[in-house]
Amino acid sequence: MTEQTEQTTPVEQTEQAEEVEQTERTEQLPPVEPQAAVTPVPEAAPAVVDPLAPPVTVDPLAPPASRVKKDRRVLRAVLRWTAAVVVFGAVGTSAAYGITRMERTDVPGLATETDGRWDYPTISKPPLPSASPAPFADANKAGAHYADLRKLVLPAPKGAKADAALRGEDGWLARKTFLAEYAEKVDRETVAQLLTDYGLRHIAARGWTTQDGTHTRIYLLQFNTAAVADEVITTKLANYDSPQYAVRGAALTERDEKFPERAAVDEITRFAYTESKPYGAEQVRQAYLSAGDTLALIVQSRKGTAQAVPFQQTVILQSQLLG
Questions:
Q1: By C-alpha distance, which of 305, 297, 277, 285 is closest to 212?
Q2: Cα 198 vs. chain centroid, distance in angstroms?
Q3: pTM (global) more than 0.85
């Protein structure tokens, strides 16, 4: 009987050789001594991460487990700061939106609504007649205000008492009532002739007295074109340093240097004045505005001192209505 011989393949021979070699290496290793118990160290609270600081660098030689924990702490901190930035960004956007919606109380250069500003009602420009351009549109070469001039006069603030003398007839003010604002008879006669020579069309006005005793008068005078109105105000009524003709109660008047320049309204030319010391029983502030075919005179007077903030607020809001 022929004995059958087992034959191994080359692959099997290689595997057997590797097993023998691995066994020999294991037998040569020294016995492993048991390690002492390691007391776990409590994890420290994550440090506050400065979002403007350079990124945290991970030590490449640190053990993998501690590096993972460190990475997770940094990630959590970054996520918290990212969430905070998003929240504050959203709040900032809302605040900015709110400010742009508060034109009736917002005066550039002032700090808060509690600094003396008046509480005006919601203000909006009157609608234009169909197919009529805005006063400063390119198509409006004359700079005409096609909206009703009577609706372009700033409304009185809340709680103010209306001045019945400035209501006029059907909203249009008589010329002599406007001229009475000037102190000297000769000045009233001169201005009356100017208005006739330059073709005055309408006068719309409004006045009121607030609880602190401030008396406000606003007059809008409309001419045929912007060129005419601009010439009247810049060459006949207003100068850089002082007005041409004194209004009642303001014998000495100077340019209002404290009126914020950044409160200027586009397309509106403004001349603001204040009564100089020493003044009498009351102080007077006034401003001329040139806005297209319309000029405005705003006068505020108050016993003692006429406050600057409500005057600036009133001038700016009236400028916005005409702009």
A1: 305
A2: 38
A3: no
